[in-house]
TrEMBL record:
Keyword set includes RNA-binding: yes
Function statement: Required for small ribosomal subunit (SSU) synthesis. Has a role in the processing of early nucleolar and late cytoplasmic pre-RNA species.
GO molecular function, one term: unfolded protein binding
Family statement drawn from the similarity comment of this UniProt entry: Belongs to the PNO1 family.
Gene3D superfamilies, sorted: K Homology domain, type 1
Identification of the protein by name: Pre-rRNA-processing protein PNO1
Length: 251
């Protein structure tokens, strides 16, 4: 009997504890009507504080005169000694587009062998100074005036320069043969690469300058690199032929 009483005792105690816990939980519940409510004045004050916190500085729109304003600047483009005579000979062709179209001030300094460019009050485009400098730099590298003038007229024309030793280290007769493979007999190979890739190439000893758009420069550079590495011109011609056919189909 004693053992039965001992077994019943904890069950009774557990029932009592469950009732007390439920009663405590009921006491914790808060009545919603007892919560304090915000008045209209308090809401207005809070809205004003949010507005003041989110206020940002307001700037007036830029005027047309400020948008067209060009920052003053100047450039000095060095001319190699062997390009001074062509510069003097074609000075009128070089001078005219820079002054008439780019609205720049140009001066040839014979003592320092440089061409100086400067913006004028009539300059309208901010990129005129950079375009003029690229135009003169291309002429100094050996390009014709008509070819270098593409840098003034078009925005997607670039100038790429690399050396033969950047591709492969060659010396003596091996270097001369590599230059001969690039040029070809009477410049035939160079002209073929130019016509197929729609670029202009200048061979200046071991340096190679390519003028054209980004994709066309890549095509011409790959052909020149293949010739430097020893590919026969016939294989390069076949590759250029397929590439030019794809370019014609694309356009």
């Amino acid at each position: 009997m004693a053992s039965l009483q001992n077994l019943k005792a904890p069950t009774l105690m557990s029932k009592k504890t469950q009732k007390t816990v439920q009663a405590d939980e009921d006491d914790v519940i808060i009545d919603a009507t007892a919560l304090p409510s915000r008045t209209a004045d308090q809401d207005d004050v809070a809205m004003e504080e949010d507005n003041t916190a989110s206020d940002k500085p307001n700037f007036a729109p830029a005027s047309a005169a400020e948008l067209k304003k060009v920052v003053k600047g100047s450039r000095k483009i060095p001319i190699p000694p062997h390009r001074m005579s062509p510069l003097k000979r074609h000075w009128l062709e070089i001078y005219s587009p820079l002054v008439e179209h780019m609205k720049l001030q140009v001066r040839m300094n014979v003592k320092t062998k440089t061409v100086e460019l400067k913006t004028s009050p009539q300059t309208e485009d901010e990129g005129s100074l950079q375009k003029g400098a690229d135009f003169l730099r291309a002429f100094a590298l050996g390009f014709e005036v008509e070819d270098a003038m593409a840098l003034l007229r078009l925005d997607d024309i670039f100038l790429d320069t690399f050396e033969i030793k950047d591709v492969k280290t060659l010396h003596g007769d091996h270097l001369a043969r590599a230059i001969g493979r690039i040029a070809g007999r009477d410049g035939k190979t160079k002209f073929t690469i130019e016509n197929a890739s729609k670029t202009r190439i200048v061979l200046a000893d071991t340096k190679i300058h390519i003028l054209g758009s980004f994709q066309n420069i890549k095509i011409a550079r790959d052909a020149v690199v293949s010739l430097i590495l020893g590919s026969p011109p016939g294989k390069v011609y076949a590759t250029l032929r397929t590439i030019s056919a794809r370019m014609k189909e694309r356009f």
